[in-house]
Amino acid sequence: MSDPRPGKPPEIFDRTLLRARRRRAGTYGEAKFLLERAAEDLSERLRAVKRNFAFALDLGTPGGALAETLAVSRQVETIVSAEPLPPSRHPHTLALAADEEALPFKDESFDLIVSALALQWVNDLPGTLLQIRRALKPDGLFLAVLAGGETLTELRQSLAAAESEIEGGLSPRVAPFVEVRAMGTLLQRAGFALPVTDVDRLTARYRDLGGLFHDLRGMGATNALAERRGKPLRRATIARAAEIYAERFADADGRLRATFDFLWVSGWAPHESQQQPLKPGSAKMRLADALGTKEQSAGEQVGRPTKR
Questions:
Q1: Which of 17, 71, 120, 220 is the most buried (most CB within 10 A)?
Q2: In DSSP terms, which residues pair with 262 in a beta bridge?
């Protein structure tokens, strides 16, 4: 249940349950295709930054896929891997157990902080972003990808329609995901300079709904909402959800689409060397001259004569 105490962020996710499900993910056959894709794409985006980083933090990324990818790139000298589960040992990283919502690092510790498919599970995302910015050295870079936007929208709609029809009500089944515009605002509020956000949409295809459920278990990403219903879905509800999913979201060959939106975010810890926005009134050329158009007053309408 949500904590009513003032000043404490609402508990959206049961993070103890999340950790337990991540531990059990391997028993279902870990589904790593999204994480591996995220690690490769993050490394590619980092290569576009023509800079080497002496001391980096891999925050919350499950397993060692991202740290290993960065180590191979030789763009990062030392990598600290921090995640809530007992740390995995990798030859190129220093590992420790740490909660993304309570970073155990002093201010200005890292030149680079990265994270892949982890920050969508934090309850206090604004507070986590603020801690990340403080942990960066001046002119340090934060680069991360998290599930966002319309991720699993097909599953959300199908479960909602089936549960409403069969059980006469709705309960939270699929986690809420942050939108790209909201994420840009959060980066600014946390004090990042030059914030950038964008979305990369991936579509996975499954033979049936059971295949999607299997992969979500293998990702440790099944329902861990704090306000989730205690009882499991009825078999009749799951069967009806599968029917609705097939009716609305199947391709011509019968395979089911599942949307995964990669929400990419980046920002820099402020530094005097960075580009700064111009002060109002400091422009040396009128916008109309730059565009080659005629300047009109706010009261004029295009194509109509002004009143005398």
A1: 220
A2: 147, 200
